[in-house]
Amino acid sequence: MRAVGLLFLIGSVWVSLMGQEEVVRLYPGKAPGSEHWTHREAENTSNLWKTRVVYNVADPTLTVFRPKPEDSVGTGVIICPGGAFFALSIDSEGFDVARWLVEKGITCFVLKYRLVECRTKDPTREVGQRGPLDEVVAPIVKLALGDGLMAIRHVRERAKQYGVRSNRIGILGFSAGGTVAASVGLNYHRTSRPDFIAPIYLAYAWAVKGNGVPSDAPPLFALAASDDELQLGPQSVEIYQDWIGAGKSAELHLFARGGHGFGMRRQGRTTDRWIERFHDWMVEQGWGRP
Question: How far, in Å, CA of 121 to CA of 275, rounded?
């Protein structure tokens, strides 16, 4: 277990140093829209998804992963793990992604956004027992969107502190986290505009569409597997078509096999190298280096 080494205040944001990573609170007090929430964040390591998950997030945070200063390319990526807005697959779709990208000189910020309050200690079972998910999730998506926008603003305002450039800050998300990334890409203001968005096997039907693709929409990278058991592959096609239809830059990858939620898990399939395709795209766009 990592020991908490130091707790200090920068402006109105608390920062906890855990090992070499910083954990930064996005809001100085209760997050707007959930001021009366009383549940506490927890973890589960024995569940249907067979991975560590975080649930009952009520206090959104960013966990910061920094490359060595001499290796930094000046690009920041906010990473949103998935989990149907009931949990966060914090390793395979969060910390493991960050560690891979950090090796390429990219500064990463893993976002714990607000989630549905769980009534049990196993969100992976509860997600299938709570009735129509569209109705349960809809109000939480809007709160998570607010957390994504706040994350962009936070990193941009402190770009120099984090060693990134203010015009090289994007957002990457998986499944429900892809919904957050897409919603941010459709609902930003000047200070919260991402410089790129990368929804991976996103649930686009849950996204907050706003007024459609903005006139200054950032470049899009979308990716999924055709055999996604949740049948989300077509939703990646849909967001790609929306971007192309608006005349905006977009790249789409659809793998024949890989299922849903593969993240950084090794399956002996071409999806094992999805992150290389994402990094290739970043290099081509000028946000990374080979």
Answer: 31
The label of the residue with tokens 């077509």 reads 234
Summarised one tens digit per residue, pLDDT across range 224-243 is: 999 999 999 999 999 999 99
Q: How many residues does the chain have?
A: 290
Task: Report the top-level CATH class of 38-285.
Answer: alpha beta
Cβ atoms of 227 and 256 within 8 Å: the answer is yes
Q: Beta partners for 17?
A: 6, 22
Q: Is the pLDDT of residue 272 over 90?
A: yes
pTM, 2 dp: 0.93
- 186-193 long-range CB contacts below 8 Å, 24 or more apart? 186/210, 186/212, 186/213, 186/214, 186/217, 187/145, 187/149, 188/149, 188/152, 188/214, 189/149, 191/152, 191/153, 191/156, 191/157, 192/149, 192/150, 192/152, 192/153, 192/156, 193/152, 193/218
Confidence at 12, pLDDT banded by 50, 70, 90: very low
